[in-house]
Specification:
Number of helices of chain A: 10
Shape of chain A: elongated
Structural class of chain A: mainly alpha
Oligomer: homodimer
Radius of gyration of chain A: 18 Å
Chain lengths: ~180, ~180
Amino acid sequence: MLAALLDALAETRYRDLTVEQVAQRAKVAKTTVYRRWGSVEGLILDLMRDQTARRVPTPDTGDLDADLRLLARGILAIYRDPAVNTLISSVVSAAVHHPEARETLSEFFISRITDTAVIAERAVQRGELPADTDTVEVIRMLGAPFYYRMFITGEPVDEALADRAAAAAAAAARAGVLVHGG
Amino acid sequence: MLAALLDALAETRYRDLTVEQVAQRAKVAKTTVYRRWGSVEGLILDLMRDQTARRVPTPDTGDLDADLRLLARGILAIYRDPAVNTLISSVVSAAVHHPEARETLSEFFISRITDTAVIAERAVQRGELPADTDTVEVIRMLGAPFYYRMFITGEPVDEALADRAAAAAAAAARAGVLVHGG
């Protein structure tokens, strides 16, 4: 389905994309797509979730720095896969103009950062971070530099960027800057 | 010219945008646009630069935290202006698929962050930050959370986000995480 969706996206503007087109390319009945995913957005969300869950299991090494570094390296790995990179980039581009794409993207990222915030929650429990740390904000801080480079400045993302993003999020959290209401 | 460009963007896809369309809406001769800006991208770059320079003068209070907070509040002010927000968002969206938009956006942001890095350079000179601080990276770290929320998670940007982005960049820089080769 991912290949079929990407083929369709390569030829059609996001706003004109239909379940029929994707179903035809995947050689499945369109009722199958409707029954399983409901819409193009449902399919995209499912594919993004499937691809990231397979590639980036939430680390749990017992150490905040190591966990954040592994998470950052996982994000890097996702964007090095051309298919997943193209899929997410297309949705980011479409989200500026299309509310459905906006909603799909927000749902995907907010649930991802909420799920992975467990990394910071465990660090709070171990006493590595202040008790009132906004654990979701720690994950946002780690992710932001990737998207800033990819979609805004157009600068490369590499291992050095990933490790630095992880270290910066940890440092800001330890300094007590990423606390609730802060 | 900004209003004319935005009108044209509202009706035409970025890839189909022409100097003729913008000139017609601005009621100027297209040769005037060509002579002054060279292309649609030249015009966009000039407008982005003009709007941000007018709204966000580079602060110089003698204190790193205060300077970064002022810079972050300035970024917030830019995106609260619907016209400038629409312009930059359109270019971000187009940059995913169009090399000319990608180049324009990179040129704008890289020159902005290089110029404002003087804030961190002064802090290094005052001994507020480690001598080997990557001063451009301090500014990237401050900017990233805005774009992450606006274009990725779709979450709001407000004063609390601006102040937190500034404080996190300062904390990471002070911790020595944002150093050259780091």
